[in-house]
Amino acid sequence: MDGAKNEWYFSNMNTLAQIPSFSLYGEEKGFPDVLHVERITDRAALHDWVISPHRHPAMHQIFLLLDGIIQASIDGKTLHFSKACILSIPRQSVHGFTFSMGTEGFVLSLPIQAHPHVFSPDTDLGRALLDPVTFEPDQAIINLFHQLEEEHKANSALRLHMLQSLSQTLMVRIARNAERDHQKRGKSRHFEKLETLLTHHIKDRWSVAQYAAALSITSTQLSRITRAEAGVSASKLIDMWLFQEAQRSLAYTRMSVAEVGYTLGFEDPAYFSRAFRRHYGQSPSEYRQGLGISSDA
């Protein structure tokens, strides 16, 4: 990563102990409505067109870019968009943006508790929305954003019902695009469910047997699946996810190396550093230094 990207990744992050979690951007107050929709320019202009990395523990966001350029960081991946696109960002995904001045589009924020039928991981719809999704929208999706904006501003009879109906229609269309993407990648349903379990339990340090039991298969079957899908054993895949989470915490937070290790179940900081070096060929401190971040150890 070059210097400009480093500055963007860590803008306003140097005094934070952990990745900031917000209800809506920098707002820590509760969510007052069934959803919130606004123009990108209305929000981004207030922050000089830069939204620093953060996450929402109980909210799903969808960005619709209509005109302009977006440089996005989503869970550590840098993406560039210069034409119409949708970015669907699930709760807990770390994301930040740099917008070109005057960028046009919408941001839709959906509190999870207000839409349990949409985001429940027990449903096909909810499972399809668990990962970030990007794609070029059709006119029907663009029209839905305009309808949501109009209905959100109004005080019409049965407003909440209409907002829920429109937002559910939008999320189904997004989920269909996500499903098409999954089909192109050819992932098995067991592997997709494993990824969901890893997202929720990687810090719990579940064993291979625990993941297999949650999927109602044996440990041997699970390793067969992970070798077919990812080319590694189940235990190796779990380790990969664990140390990817370590990388994310080292990059996006101001926790000490020891604190990062503790959050991931390593009681001995020295052992965590050795394990990190085995995976990446450098210590956690060296990894931070490579990103231009001063390290504690």
From TrEMBL:
Residues 192-290 form the HTH araC/xylS-type domain. PROSITE patterns: HTH_ARAC_FAMILY_2. GO terms for molecular function: DNA-binding transcription factor activity; sequence-specific DNA binding. It comes from the Bacteria. Keywords: DNA-binding, Transcription, Transcription regulation. InterPro entries: Cupin_HpaA-like_N, Homeodomain-like_sf, HTH-like, HTH_AraC, RmlC-like_jellyroll, Tscrpt_reg_AraC-type_HTH. Pfam families: HTH_18. Transmembrane segments: none annotated. This is AraC family transcriptional regulator, transcriptional activator of pobA.
